[in-house]
Amino acid sequence: MRPLTPTETSTLGILTAACLAVLVNTWRSDGEPLFASLAISGIAFAFTYATILWSGEVFMRKGFKGRDLSKKNGGEIPETMGLVCALVYLLVLVSFLPFAFKSHIVASTLDAGYDKDRILEGGGMETGRFLHRFPLEKLASYGFAYATLASTTILGILDDAFDMRWRHKFFIPAFAALPMLALYFVDFGVTHVSVPVPLRQYLGVGELIDLGGFYYVYMGAISIFCPNCINIMAGINGIEVGQSIVIACLILLNDALYLFPAAHRPPHPAEESHLFSVYLLLPFLGVSVALALHNWFPAKVFVGDTYCYFAGMVFAVVGILGHFSKTLLLLFIPQIFNFLYSAPQLFKLVPCPRHRLPRFNARTGLLEPSVATFEEAQPLRPLVGEGLKLLDTVHIVRVKTDERGRVTETSNLTILNLWLVWRGPLREDRLAVEILLLQTGVGLLGLWARHSLALLLFTADNRF
Amino acid sequence: MRPLTPTETSTLGILTAACLAVLVNTWRSDGEPLFASLAISGIAFAFTYATILWSGEVFMRKGFKGRDLSKKNGGEIPETMGLVCALVYLLVLVSFLPFAFKSHIVASTLDAGYDKDRILEGGGMETGRFLHRFPLEKLASYGFAYATLASTTILGILDDAFDMRWRHKFFIPAFAALPMLALYFVDFGVTHVSVPVPLRQYLGVGELIDLGGFYYVYMGAISIFCPNCINIMAGINGIEVGQSIVIACLILLNDALYLFPAAHRPPHPAEESHLFSVYLLLPFLGVSVALALHNWFPAKVFVGDTYCYFAGMVFAVVGILGHFSKTLLLLFIPQIFNFLYSAPQLFKLVPCPRHRLPRFNARTGLLEPSVATFEEAQPLRPLVGEGLKLLDTVHIVRVKTDERGRVTETSNLTILNLWLVWRGPLREDRLAVEILLLQTGVGLLGLWARHSLALLLFTADNRF
């Protein structure tokens, strides 16, 4: 890894100084926490950008390194650098708390008047400020969000350090999500969902249906799905962190629809939830963009499983604690497609090679679909082979058959390979850009559908 | 590592089954959370005990291993096994939350009556249960305690994986403690301390003095001190986890003084804080005793820095969020002594060898004080040498001098070596037992002083 260039040093220095000035000013003038969040995200960006450069050597010395298989003469570069993002993120999330609650601290302090006698007489000494005015439910959300993300980081590190098996690590995020689910259980406890109008008469239910325990299974599934689906849509420079940035921006856009005063007056009842989401996502964008600059083609660092889990869990946390998990899923459509498309290989219906990332053609410098080949000794089950051939005819996969019509080879079942099947060989960064544009387009379409078509299915928009 | 013996399997199985039965029963009958906490701690013990045996191999394969220097032919054994304790602890802490808040969940649900229309009309859908009855400040404490301990675990893993330098890792716990300090800042905000009566007229202050920002520095110092002082009172089998168990038991004794109804009626105002402490410490005892059984002489596993940080931070969390950090320090007197006694070597006044653990005499099988020797090329500063000779005359250290009276060698400045200077060579387990008895005795004395002598200095007992 190289040291910071003078240009980088001065740019990051000026950015940090400007952000610190905004922070101090926001604190003094009791300004909007949003400005503090933006400033803290700027600092998080600068700090992450520099720390990745500084710590790359240490990571490599300790064995956190890998070889880029899609480069002509790729040396080893640091792996697991998403850990830096996670640590900086946790640090700035805590630093933001005093800003988020400044107005309440001042209000409740004035309320109590810091009247020592009164505090002493009332037995209030033990609790300090009088608590009934303080938005403790918000504070608890931050605490448990932090707890969940810190747990995710622990399990990510363990995965990166111990190379866990796929079937073990698939369930890891469920453990990490426990603090969030516990908070939901003891605090919110809402397990009702709105039933789409057309379904009500068939199901014989009213506007709301109480899913009870199943709602926790659903939330657990969300927190397993988000981290894992980012982890499996991987394999080319910049794609893990790129898709995370796109999804974060789309959620922020959705938040803005609720928060932008012109769109909804009077203030939308879900405003607090969406502010929570904004405050969690802005610093996430800060650390992710810094990582993306190092991880973009040609990558100088790898992000590691830690980043994928961490990013996915940030989305799960804002979706679940912000009560918009179904909207969230609309932004994960490419990931959902990729997961379903991968399923035959993940569940071993179709043999799954160790790596499924697109094949690098050293002669052209372009990526081509990688393939899984089937040995004579371990042929495909005939039914599966017929299925693959059927998919081939509608161009959802590319197979090769031998003279007897048996499938001997198929393109690996990932969205990246499928895109290459459709578009032909592409350079690595071109492929990443196109997939990210696809993600953006599908996400925007999803949000449009969510906000304009939802009224056809539900009696009111934005219930969740 | 060996598999579980049939006796172990059946004992752990019966224990787990019994604890599960207690848990189910407590849940059904809305029993005291204390029983749930005891049952969960039992499960934590069984789970930790078994997982350490199961995962030892994996840890060793990944390079987390070390050689026991105080054994005749010590092979390599797994290192960092305290990580298992930390992970199990975090898991059971979350699992305990529904039990801790069961009565409140029921109460607030009944209160709201789960009246769907009322919830909908009142806009309460977003928040579910009505919040004003729910003890959210307690819930936030658990969330931030978890957040702090998870952060400590992350930094402990990084320390164990990256072998950080002493001067860097000294400050690690301060970062991990940030969530707790942030909670304290935005939620409690009590920065007043009682002034001892005799000091009031000299300082010209009243009963309370507001330390403001200095109180946060003080709390930060506590959270740096507790983890580090357990980490430096180390080096023989069972001492890290043994001292943690003793301290935890002493804190529980102190909690019992507040909670036991016979001692204080009506219920003490600090009861909630001490229940919080009990609920955090019982599962800690569970995982620690399990680790101790594997780490006791002759050790089958090492605990690692992760455990020391984790244990120290558990104490810091209960002391700070439970508002009895000064009492806590009374239980750390041997650690405080060890830290002050070590200071000349920690701050390089006296040369500090890589390891300061007692020296194993392979001939006798006993431990003797280890020594730091001073080369002719790098002699001691004369003043430091004179100081050491002075300490030697009062038997606080053992030095050797050359014919010109210059100090050539000193026993290493740790409480373990000092004890060996006083008591002569001891077997490793004997030394551990004696130091733990010392810890127990001094702690009991401290608690007695705290509760019987405090009235001489303060106008009321148990203010904090």
UniProtKB/TrEMBL annotation, chains A, B:
Provide the alphabetized UniProt keywords. Endoplasmic reticulum, Glycosyltransferase, Magnesium, Membrane, Metal-binding, Transferase, Transmembrane, Transmembrane helix
Places the protein is found: Endoplasmic reticulum membrane
Pathway field of the UniProt record reads: Protein modification; protein glycosylation
Q: What is its main location?
A: endoplasmic reticulum
MF (Gene Ontology): glycosyltransferase activity; metal ion binding; UDP-N-acetylglucosamine-dolichyl-phosphate N-acetylglucosaminephosphotransferase activity
Determine the domain of life of the protein's source: Eukaryota
Top-tier EC class: transferase
* Record field: catalytic activity: a di-trans,poly-cis-dolichyl phosphate + UDP-N-acetyl-alpha-D-glucosamine = an N-acetyl-alpha-D-glucosaminyl-diphospho-di-trans,poly-cis-dolichol + UMP
Q: Which Pfam families match?
A: Glycos_transf_4
Q: Which GO terms describe its biological process?
A: dolichol-linked oligosaccharide biosynthetic process
Q: Which cofactor does it need?
A: Mg(2+)
GO CC field? endoplasmic reticulum membrane
Q: What does this protein do?
A: UDP-N-acetylglucosamine--dolichyl-phosphate N-acetylglucosaminephosphotransferase that operates in the biosynthetic pathway of dolichol-linked oligosaccharides, the glycan precursors employed in protein asparagine (N)-glycosylation. The assembly of dolichol-linked oligosaccharides begins on the cytosolic side of the endoplasmic reticulum membrane and finishes in its lumen. The sequential addition of sugars to dolichol pyrophosphate produces dolichol-linked oligosaccharides containing fourteen sugars, including two GlcNAcs, nine mannoses and three glucoses.
Q: What family, per the record?
A: Belongs to the glycosyltransferase 4 family.
Full protein name: UDP-N-acetylglucosamine--dolichyl-phosphate N-acetylglucosaminephosphotransferase
In the record, what lineage is assigned to the organism producing the protein? Eukaryota, Fungi, Dikarya, Ascomycota, Pezizomycotina
